[in-house]
Inverse folding.
């Protein structure tokens, strides 16, 4: 049997140490400044968990203010800063780190059959750049004027009006906090770009023998497409950030137009255009959504295949759908700017183009669903999260229909409908995908299982809490409730406002459900049930090596002989075939 | 890069798929870096175009620049691309000495370009051009000019540094044809970007 | 692995998904889920939204029903065995969703949304022209006065108390301009064309009851057209973050009958009169 074979190979590797893959000596080289992709992956996960404490904590704080105004001991100045920082931290320092960097680092070399990333040193550097980036982001709370407060989109003029030199001050948070925000983001972009380069090079060049592109697991495909998208779109944000810094500190007028009067003070700027920043920002911003969402869907495909004991439906169409999504994703950024003052004709174009994306997404959705057809579902925690992802992709996805339609956006733009929609997509979809991946690969990471009872508790709390919370926010958006408001007073918003306490209670449920996860994660790392090399009887390459995975991943690299998902094989359809099984 | 990774990688090259049309991962990463960087410059130049079209009184280029001087500057940089190509060819032949010489010549060309650019900047600043203002028209000109040529200049400067390291390594035999070729790729890219920058600021 | 607990999870998740579907769909009947509408194009916007609710709702309900059914049918004990689909069926399941999604979404935006979108951005000759200026935490509206011309706004003449629009005393066009702070007055049933500008940062002229939303961008004049259909007082809530006071950047659109509006306009005096 393939598994037995794999275990044997692993054991042999441990005893023989046939070839020296350079086991690094000492704690520091092994766990701190490690170039091993598995260690770096875990480091990213831990960093994301640390940052999520801050990001989620902030969200609970402002949820209290929203549900029971005045009870949160918060000023409007703090509120806008906290909302801004919650967004930035959660998108870039939690979801990106955990899903793209963390699980990507861990799974890609193992799934393609490589010893490590193409450039392990660069990989280590990517992680260690994130550390000062996170520190700067957090420290920005403590400078004069407080943290950045212009929204996570950092639209100028507000974000450009720094109060330095001749430039007037737009708001308290537009001072040093915004500069540090830009600095932290610049470091993040450098790290993420290096990581993306590594992913692309590893996936294209370090695949094990026999691993043709169309034999790669869908997780690898999604990471591949996401890395390409990231590499193509992040430079636009880099350019925008450089220009914004120059506007803030050197008095240039890239984004600051003539005739500005800020709190009675006339600015000296001439000729800039604020809309330019929005174009550059969303040229990154929209692909970034797919950079985050696609790998989550890819992981779900792998997890669903393993626990439904059948190959996912429509491998080829899924790959094509991914590529089409990536292409369309690059040319639709303007749908974030329907009401921005952009030419209305362009608005129509962006609307029509964006709605085309629903087609490849529908293919992915149908493929996910159809992967359960005639399956033998095993309801592990990992599988539950993957199933939750299907529901969230569908629910979040149809919200996109409303927002992609320019005419409907006249009502929805900058309301809680938008908030609910993107939280479902880049919050719930990404995190259910991440959790599915963590519960799935944890035995490979640490050689131990996570506790299933705590895991189920985690799932039900997260899923019920998050689903209810964000679906209710859609209804508040129908009610016209504007986002980023410290308090509400208008008559029209009263029915929507009545839902606020419920939203906050569900937020407490969703965040509280992470407590068993945190405990489970660390407890299981040391005390969890010991895991075999292939506890889920999955077929992709990472399960062919020993647990714990040796340095260099395999004694001898596997040779791939078939498709990634060799489930439902044999006469009765209850056998499975490893991807490197001999024909 | 440490020794562990080298062993890991060398082992991998024999056991892996031939890769993307036989390209090594180093070259692949360089290409993707270049594509990303090209988009970065593209964003800057697109922004420049956006602003220039909407500005009413964009400065007249003939008032500010001496086209002859810029032609010499551009010529120097293009020449350095030629010497670089020669260095790559020499390195492929295994002629270490020629590879060293021509890489050094490329670096000298790069330095000469930087020197001329410094003069050009001095000249403009002397005549009153700043990031936020200039005597000839729309202030955005100064911001875009200094930001884009400065950003390109920083690419040239880092390119010169990489050239010097490559030359040194080529001489000692530490850097084979592949290393020189990678440096060459980057250098040609920097030159190519200049052609666009040149076109956008000095010709249009 | 396929224990009784698996079956419990299947039923739990399945019924939870169905419950969520029922609650979500039911909420549309129970909640007052959108503000009333008081503008001509606003009805179009609502028509568009209703169309998408049915289209999206169909996908939402069917998707969740299928998911729940699969969970119970193929989860837990005693399940059917997997058989690969034929190529033909597989293509059907790919092309089907593609055609359905493209048809449903593009049809909506082209047939229902497009005309409404044009309505919002087309200036008609006999529209009442209103000038809106936003500045941190205040909306200021302006009417051209008897001469029908707006005076120029000069940043250097700006004074928060005396001259919030920076109008020039010597400019004959500016003399009779009517400036109203924090409110806009409109006659019912008549088209109003808005010129929207901002002094400082981005704002958004957002009147949910009129289904109007247009950013105010410094250095740029943006436009929107509203035809109010009911007399009333509707709140303007800024919809683009503009600083800590974003939430209190309010104003009111007062829609009056044509006679009342004429009376109001007559009672107003120019800023420098």
């Amino acid at each position: 049997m393939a598994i037995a074979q794999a275990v044997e190979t692993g054991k042999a590797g441990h005893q023989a140490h046939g070839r020296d893959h350079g086991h690094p000596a000492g704690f520091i080289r092994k766990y701190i400044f490690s170039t091993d992709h598995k260690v770096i992956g875990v480091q990213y996960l831990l960093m994301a968990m640390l940052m999520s404490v801050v990001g989620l904590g902030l969200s609970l704080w402002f949820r209290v203010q929203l549900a029971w105004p005045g009870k949160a001991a918060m000023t409007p100045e703090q509120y806008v800063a906290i909302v801004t920082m919650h967004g930035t931290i959660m998108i870039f320092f939690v979801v990106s780190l955990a899903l793209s960097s963390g699980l990507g680092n861990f799974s890609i070399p193992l799934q393609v059959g490589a010893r490590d990333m193409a450039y392990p040193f660069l990989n280590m550097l990517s992680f260690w750049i994130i550390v000062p980036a996170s520190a700067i982001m957090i420290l920005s709370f403590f400078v004069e004027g407080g943290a950045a407060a212009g929204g996570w989109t950092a639209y100028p003029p507000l974000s450009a009006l720094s109060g330095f030199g001749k430039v007037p001050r737009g708001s308290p948070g537009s001072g040093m906090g915004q500069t540090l925000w830009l600095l932290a983001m610049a470091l993040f972009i450098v790290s993420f770009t290096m990581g993306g380069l590594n992913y692309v090079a590893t996936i294209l060049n370090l695949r094990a023998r026999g691993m043709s592109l169309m034999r790669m697991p869908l997780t690898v495909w999604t990471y591949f497409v996401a890395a390409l998208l990231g590499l193509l779109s992040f430079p636009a944000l880099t350019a925008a950030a450089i220009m914004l810094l120059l506007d803030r500190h050197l008095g240039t007028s890239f984004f600051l137009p003539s005739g500005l009067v800020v709190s009675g003070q006339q600015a000296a700027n001439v000729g800039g255009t604020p809309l330019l920043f929005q174009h550059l920002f969303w040229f990154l911003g929209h692909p970034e959504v797919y950079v985050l969402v696609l790998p989550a869907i890819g992981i779900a495909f792998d997890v669903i295949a393993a626990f439904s004991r059948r190959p996912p439906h429509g491998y080829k169409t899924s790959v094509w759908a991914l590529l089409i999504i990536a292409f369309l994703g690059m040319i639709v950024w303007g749908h974030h700017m329907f009401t921005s003052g952009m030419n209305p004709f362009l608005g129509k174009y962006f609307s029509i183009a964006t709605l085309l994306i629903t087609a490849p997404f529908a293919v992915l959705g149908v493929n996910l669903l159809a992967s359960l057809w005639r399956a033998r579902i095993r309801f592990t925690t990992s599988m539950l999260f993957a199933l939750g992802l299907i529901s969230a992709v569908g629910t979040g996805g149809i919200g996109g229909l409303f927002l992609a339609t320019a005419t409907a956006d006249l009502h929805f733009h900058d309301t809680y409908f938008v908030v609910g929609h993107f939280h479902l997509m880049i919050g719930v979809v990404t995190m259910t995908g991440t959790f599915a991946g963590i519960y799935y690969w944890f035995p490979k990471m640490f050689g131990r299982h996570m506790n299933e009872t705590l895991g189920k508790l985690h799932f039900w709390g997260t899923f019920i809490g998050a689903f209810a919370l964000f679906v209710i926010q859609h209804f508040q958006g129908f009610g016209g409730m504007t986002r980023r408001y410290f308090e509400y007073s208008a008559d029209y918003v009263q029915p929507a406002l009545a839902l606020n306490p419920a939203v906050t209670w569900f937020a407490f449920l969703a965040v509280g459900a992470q407590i068993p996860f945190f405990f489970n994660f660390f407890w299981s790392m040391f005390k969890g049930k010991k895991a075999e090399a292939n506890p889920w009887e999955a077929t992709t390459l990472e399960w062919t090596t020993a647990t714990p995975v040796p340095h260099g991943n395999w004694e001898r690299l596997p040779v791939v002989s078939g498709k990634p998902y060799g489930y439902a094989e044999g006469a009765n359809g209850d056998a499975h075939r490893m991807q490197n099984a001999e024909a | 890069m440490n020794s562990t990774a080298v062993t890991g990688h060398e082992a991998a090259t024999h056991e892996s798929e031939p890769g993307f049309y036989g390209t090594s991962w180093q070259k692949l990463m360089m290409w993707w870096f270049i594509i990303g960087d090209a988009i970065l410059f593209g964003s800057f130049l697109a922004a420049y175009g956006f602003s220039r079209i909407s500005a009413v009184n964009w400065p007249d280029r003939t008032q500010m620049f001496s086209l002859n001087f810029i032609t010499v500057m551009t010529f120097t940089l293009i020449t350095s691309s030629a010497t670089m190509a020669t260095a790559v060819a020499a390195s492929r032949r295994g002629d270490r000495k020629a590879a060293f010489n021509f890489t050094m010549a490329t670096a000298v060309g790069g330095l000469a370009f930087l020197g001329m650019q410094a003069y050009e900047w001095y000249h403009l600043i002397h005549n009153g051009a700043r990031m936020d203002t200039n005597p000839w028209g729309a202030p955005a000109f100064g911001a875009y000019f200094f930001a884009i040529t400065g950003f390109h200049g920083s690419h040239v400067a880092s390119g010169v540094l990489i050239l010097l390291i490559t030359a040194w390594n080529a001489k000692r035999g530490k850097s084979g044809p592949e290393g020189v070729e990678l440096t060459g790729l980057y250098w040609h890219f920097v030159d190519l970007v200049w052609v666009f920058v040149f076109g956008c600021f000095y010709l249009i | 692995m396929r224990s009784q607990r698996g079956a419990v999870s299947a039923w739990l998740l399945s019924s939870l998904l169905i419950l969520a579907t029922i609650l979500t769909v039911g909420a549309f009947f129970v909640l007052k889920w959108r503000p009333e509408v008081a503008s001509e194009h606003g009805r179009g916007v609502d028509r568009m939204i209703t169309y998408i609710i049915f289209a999206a709702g169909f996908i939402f309900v069917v998707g969740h029903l299928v998911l729940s059914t699969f969970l119970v049918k193929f989860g837990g004990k005693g399940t059917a065995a997997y058989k690969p689909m034929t190529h033909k069926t597989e293509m059907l399941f790919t092309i089907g969703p593609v055609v359905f999604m493209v048809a449903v979404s593009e049809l909506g935006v082209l047939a229902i949304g497009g005309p409404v979108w044009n309505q919002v951005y087309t200036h008609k000759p006999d529209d009442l022209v209103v000038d809106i200026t936003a500045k941190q935490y205040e909306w200021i509206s302006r009417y051209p006065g008897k001469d029908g011309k707006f005076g120029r706004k000069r940043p250097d003449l700006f004074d928060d108390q005396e001259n919030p629009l920076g109008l020039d005393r010597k400019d004959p066009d500016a003399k009779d301009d009517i400036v109203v702070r924090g409110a806009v007055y409109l006659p019912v049933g008549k088209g109003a064309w808005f010129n929207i500008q901002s002094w400082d940062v981005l704002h958004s002229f957002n009147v949910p009851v009129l289904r109007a939303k247009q950013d105010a961008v410094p250095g740029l004049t943006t436009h929107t057209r509203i035809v109010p259909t009911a007399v009333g007082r509707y709140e303007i809530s800024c919809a683009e973050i503009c600083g800590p006071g974003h939430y209190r950047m309010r104003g009111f659109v007062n829609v009056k009958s044509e006679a009342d509006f004429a009376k109001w306009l007559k009672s107003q005096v120019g800023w420098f009169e």
Q: What stands out?
A: The CA atoms of residues 48 and 54 of chain B lie 10 Å apart. Confidence is low (pLDDT under 50) at residues 1-14 of chain B. The helical segments of chain B are 3-15, 25-54, 61-64, 67-93, 96-126, 140-172, 177-203. The radius of gyration of chain B is 20 Å.
